[in-house]
From TrEMBL:
Residues 34-265 form the NADP-dependent oxidoreductase domain. The record marks K82 as: Lowers pKa of active site Tyr. This is Oxidoreductase, aldo/keto reductase. Belongs to the aldo/keto reductase family. Keywords: NADP, Oxidoreductase. CDD domains: AKR_AKR5F1. Substrate binds at H115. It comes from the Bacteria. The keyword NADP applies.
Length: 286
């Protein structure tokens, strides 16, 4: 397989020494399995070497089929999936990870995350710890764990999460979570780096102006801001030209002044949901 992209994506070292690409391809909301398979193949041909899926997305099989069709060796692709809350509990979590590996066509996973901080996430975490000890999982982490839940998990368990995947974008930059994640050695990964286009992301005057100075789009500036600030990103698109655009952020750099302007855009509010809202918990439980 030949890459479209001439720009290589750098990797970061996780807290256990495993290298993870700073940019990957996300498949959230690609529910049509044929479209998902085609999109993952396009992403791999474009040059992506990290794929992020989840049990709850319902497309692990399509991702696995695309990986098999790509012709790439398994160790050339950093593969992430997430355990859904209905699969929490020690035995259920282990069984669900085994089922995910079958669907993905692999005997190991590079990163497995607990998808939400609800239900019996302690038992689920203990299962991931044991699978990590057995070498089945190269790294383990969490998703949507706000600062309080994150610190709780860190303080009362053996293994510190390698990654915490959070809604992170220019309008919601997560300074509190990052303070504690830096303290304990967990990498932040962004889901929704474009806020799904909300709050005028793609036409924002500041992003557009900075982009014009570099010959880039507002979307590229939004991604470049995150990765330059140490955030791993997994933008999702089903359009090959957008895949190329999202990957084409590694050969320019924002100035300190531009970074400060973008940091000033933080609203401190989610564009989607608040995981500390009881109604949110009820929605997930239901």
């Amino acid at each position: 397989m030949q890459n479209d992209s001439s720009t290589s994506v750098p990797s970061v070292k996780l807290n256990n020494g495993v290298l993870m690409p700073m940019e990957g391809f996300g498949v959230y909301q690609i529910a049509d399995l044929d479209e998902c398979r085609r999109s993952v193949l396009d992403a791999l041909e474009t040059g992506y070497r990290a794929i992020d899926t989840a049990q709850a997305y319902g497309n692990e099989q399509a991702v696995g089929d695309a990986l098999a069709q790509s012709g790439l060796d398994r160790d050339q692709v950093f593969l992430t999936t997430k355990v859904w809350i209905t699969n929490y509990g020690y035995d259920k979590t282990k069984a669900s990870v085994e089922e995910s590996m079958k669907k993905l066509g692999t005997d190991h996973l590079d990163l497995v995350l607990l998808h939400q901080p609800f239900n019996d996430y302690y038992a689920a975490w203990h299962a991931l710890e044991d699978l990590y000890d057995q070498g089945v999982l190269r790294a383990i982490g969490v998703s949507n764990f706000y600062a309080d839940r994150y610190v709780d998990l860190v303080k009362f368990n053996r293994i510190v999460p390698a990654v915490n995947q959070l809604e992170t974008h220019v309008f919601h930059q997560r300074p509190q979570e990052r303070t504690y994640m830096d303290k304990y050695g967990t990498r932040i990964e962004s889901w929704g780096p474009f806020a799904e286009g909300r709050q005028g992301m793609f036409t924002n005057p500041t992003l557009t102006e900075i982009g014009q100075a570099h010959g880039r789009t507002a979307a590229q500036v939004a991604l470049r801001f995150l990765v330059q600030d140490g955030v791993i990103v997994i933008p999702k698109t089903t359009h090959r030209e957008r895949m190329r655009e999202n990957l084409d952020i590694w050969d320019f750099r924002l100035s300190d002044q531009e970074m400060d302007r973008l940091r000033a855009m933080d609203t401190g509010k989610s564009a989607f949901m608040n995981h500390e809202d009881p109604e949110t918990v009820e929605d997930f439980a239901g």
